[in-house]
Please model this.
Amino acid sequence: MNKKYFYLLLLPCFLFLLIFMVIPILVTTLSSFYLDGRITLEGYRSFLTDHYFLNILFRTLRISLLTTTICIILGFPVAYYVSKLNVKLKFIFIAAAVFPLLISPVVRSFSWMAILGREGIFNTLLKKIGIINEPIQFLYTELAIVIGLVHLFLPLMIIALIGVMENIDYDLVKAAQSLGASRFTSFIKIVFPLSVPGLVVGSVLVFVGSLTAYTTPQLLGGSRRVMSTLLYQQSLTLNNWYTASIIATIMIVATFIIIGIMNKIAQKLNPKG
Amino acid sequence: MSLISLEDVTVAYDNKINILEKFNLNVEKGKLISLLGPSGCGKTTTLRLIAGFLEAKAGKFTFKDKNYTNIPVYRRNFGFVFQNYALFPHLNVFENVAFGLKQRKVPKSEIRKRVPEMLELVDLNGFEDRFVTELSGGQRQRVAIARALVINPDLLLFDEPLSNLDANLRIAMRVEIRRIQQELGITSIYVSHDQEECFSISDEVAIMNKGVIEQLDSPSVIYKYPKTEFVARFIGFTNFIDFEVESSENGKLLLNSNHSKFRALKTNDVKVNKSYKGVIRPESIKMKSYIENEKQSENSIKGSIKISTFLGGLHQYVVNTELGEITVNSDREPPYDAGENVILSLPEDKLVLVEKG
Model:
């Protein structure tokens, strides 16, 4: 094939994304700077000085960060274990990890409501054992949102990590041990830094996913709004498209900042990654 | 007392077939010993067992009179050089070499002194800041050797370290490895499937087959006097003739094969009236044209040329004889013709009797 026209392979996808993603994003973003016929930052000023809005922004970031951290802590050992299995067992484990993705977030959130509610499975169990007398408020808290999101996104983290970890040459670990590193040290000094590319991909997916998740926080968070549910309320309930475009822009910017920070961390941990 | 001793060691992968069974090996201090054999013979398993990457199902590994059987890898202080180098891709050359020193909590100032010294020993001074991915195969293996040596290991283990390099570099590197090993007087075990490589650098070579050492000797002894049919085949003997020992006196043997008498020196422990394989290299056999009614000297046999192949400086012939087909090298010009009658003589000091395999 003529190299000159090689880029034509990109064209269909490029056009699709241009029309249905880039242009809408630009329109949304630009309209957030435009109020009553003039260009202004007024909308951002009032959003970033409003305690109610700021609270929601920080809650969203807090929940996303916590979800990502928990996914890393839970996912890392699993991914390391699975990456060292033989092909057949690996397939079974990966299938098991992917399986929850087949269940809609709506169904999963309803299941969590059944588990975490006042009369839910969890509270009933705790009462039966005698640890508590009165039911604990799990549902409609930030914790409930985090639990739901971890459940939703852990597979992504595990798969991203396995992808990188199964390519780590196990001789490197043996080499580290022959040089005097214990099992733990060789994991920290060798396996961990070499897993960073997977860790970054997994973290970005989980973080951005948590930041933009709608169903889970809507169903498990109750009145505790996050950015996405706020966006929905402003646009479709209150018909306030101007504020909605500001929220959208802030979410886009936050996403890019997070990806930037993740890349910086990755470079620090693994300069060759 | 040997520095290393493996006693009745048994190793199995996944508790299935035993790769090694009641395996024994002793290595003297300061020696470089090679484990040589076809793939699956257990040489790498032996090396990994000594390194501590594998656990023995039974048996004992003694090092410097201490029981090392259950000492974990990271407390053994053995340097290991991998076939695929196993350099840390996220660290530069300096950090790779310094890795073992850091684990030993060596002060920074000393690390900064010892790493360049070691890089100089492997002829890589000035490469400290390079990343591993920027190095050629030969340079990577030098870094790997420096990394294994900088910790002052009690033992150096090589697992086919040159098999990923091209032929010229392999020869240069094996000279280098031998030089460094002798300069530091460090006991080493070297695994390879390349006979020439093992013979050129080792004090002693252990030829392994199916989890057993068939022969452990100096390279020159193995080359001249293999003990078993397997060893003889493995190191390039091509002629295998059935002989029965008629008598053994003063280190000389009288042999009988198909009613012809032959003489050979007694190099191995052979018994009278038992049958053995007589092995001889094609280049050790002398060949001349057959002349009618000429008196035949001892240890010779008549034959006719069956196949002739050109090997560059010489020809290789397959000769039909009463003892079967015998392969002979000869540089006579003009070469013998197919069907020509010849006399082969097998020098008594080149004809070696080995156990039938």
Notes: Helices of chain B lie at 43-51, 93-103, 108-121, 137-149, 167-184, 195-201, 219-224, 229-234. Chain B has eight helices and 20 strands. The first strand of chain B starts at residue 4 and ends at 12.
